[in-house]
Amino acid sequence: GIAYDYIIEKTGVQAKNHVYIGDRKKQDILPPKSRGMQTISVWSEISEANLSLQSVYELKNIFKDSFARTF
């Protein structure tokens, strides 16, 4: 948990603007989610995640679309 707090503090970026990607609910999704970060689960459906993907390769399209809307 301390690592998530450290990153949020050091970047100066609000937690809601961070995205954490992982495949384990207890270790990868719940801790960053509890700090207000966005979460993406890969290789599994995790209901607590903001988004669940079947493959890590789907991330390319997710971020491409996201960045296109941002810029």
Explained architecture:
- The protein has 71 residues and is α/β, with parallel strands linked by helices.
- Helices cover 45% and strands 17% of the residues.
- The protein is built from 3 helices and 3 strands; from the N terminus they run H-E-H-E-E-H.
- Strands 1-2-3 form a 3-stranded parallel sheet, covered by helices on one side.
- Helix 2 (25-34) links the parallel strand 1 (19-22) and strand 2 (38-42).
- It is globular and about 30 Å long.
- The model has no long low-confidence stretch (mean pLDDT 90).
How does the major sheet shape up?
3 strands, parallel
Structural class: alpha/beta
- Cα-based radius of gyration, to the nearest Å: 12 Å
Strand content: 15-25%
**Contiguous uncertain segments of 5+ residues:** none
Could you report the average pLDDT, rounded to the nearest whole number? Answer: 90
Tally of contiguous helical segments: 3
Assign a percent range to the helix content: 40-55%
In total, how many beta strands?
Answer: 3
The best one-word shape is: globular
What order do the SSEs take from the amino end to the carboxyl end, as H and E? HEHEEH
Identify the strand order in the major beta sheet.
1-2-3
Give the terminus-to-terminus CA distance.
31 Å
